Amino acid sequence: MARSERESAIRRPLTATLGVDSNLRVLRTLVEHGGLLAASEIVRRSRLSRESVRLGLVALETLGIVVASGSGHSRLYRFDDSHYLAPTLAALFKAESNRFTAILDAVRQSAAQRPVFSLFVYGSAARGDDGPDSDLDIGLIARADDLAEAVEGLRQALRDPAERLVFLPNVVGLDFDDVRRLARDKDPWWENIKQDAIVLAGSRPEDAVSLQEALHG
């Protein structure tokens, strides 16, 4: 099999800039922050190893898209917004962020007016370690009599947004007896939900039962 040929850096700078995972994640971190960051803070925010961040910064400095100030341990880095490609790169990261916000808004709006006590995203998407083929796990808590209708209604309402924004919704419904049982048994799935859930409407999932009891006695 023939080996891939190297691309021209001056003709195809995006390959060198975004074609390496560490470059991309370091650059995203700096663009989102908008100011100076130490390498240690880039490590924390990007969730990359120190060596990956070091290599990413070296490559991005060479390309001129990142600039540094200071020296030694006081060295700080920032995105160079005067670079020729800077507006386009910033717009790409903004669009990326806006899409996730739009997905969460679509889920929230699709559940509006439905009798749910808690609506939340959980699992890999909530933790931020989902893959390209991962579902968007959506949980809702409702009364037993309302549960089936609420779940099916949310699934139907998400069909168009899911196609437009390209995500795979997986809706799971729980009633109050389910929540009590999961909490009593310290179910690992439930414990993970309590830790990771991004709440979109209503109470936190672990507080839904107490909220329901307070409202209805």
Tell me what the structure shows.
The chain is an alpha+beta fold and 217 residues long. The chain is 54% helix and 15% strand. The chain has 11 helices and 7 strands. The chain has helices at 13-18, 21-33, 39-46, 50-63, 86-110, 124-127, 144-157, 159-165, 176-184, 188-196, 208-216, and strands at 37-38, 66-69, 76-79, 118-122, 136-141, 169-174, 198-202. It has a 4-stranded mixed sheet with strand order 6-5-4-7, with helices on both faces. A 3-stranded antiparallel sheet has the order 1-3-2. A hairpin with a 6-residue loop joins strand 2 and strand 3 (76-79). Helix 2 (21-33) packs across helix 3 (39-46) and helix 2 (21-33) packs across helix 4 (50-63). The longest helix has 25 residues, at 86-110. The protein starts with 12 loop residues before the first helix and ends with a helix.
Number of helices: 11
Kindly state the percentage of residues in helix: 40-55%
Quote the distance from N terminus to C terminus.
Answer: 72 Å
Q: Report the portion of residues in β strands.
A: 5-15%
Task: Specify the biggest β-sheet.
Answer: 4 strands, mixed
Q: Which outline best applies?
A: elongated
Number of beta-strand segments: 7
Index terms:
three-stranded antiparallel beta sheet, 11 helices, 15% strand, 217 residues, elongated, four-stranded mixed beta sheet, alpha+beta
Summarize the structure.
54% of the residues lie in helices and 15% in strands. It has 217 residues and is of the alpha+beta class.
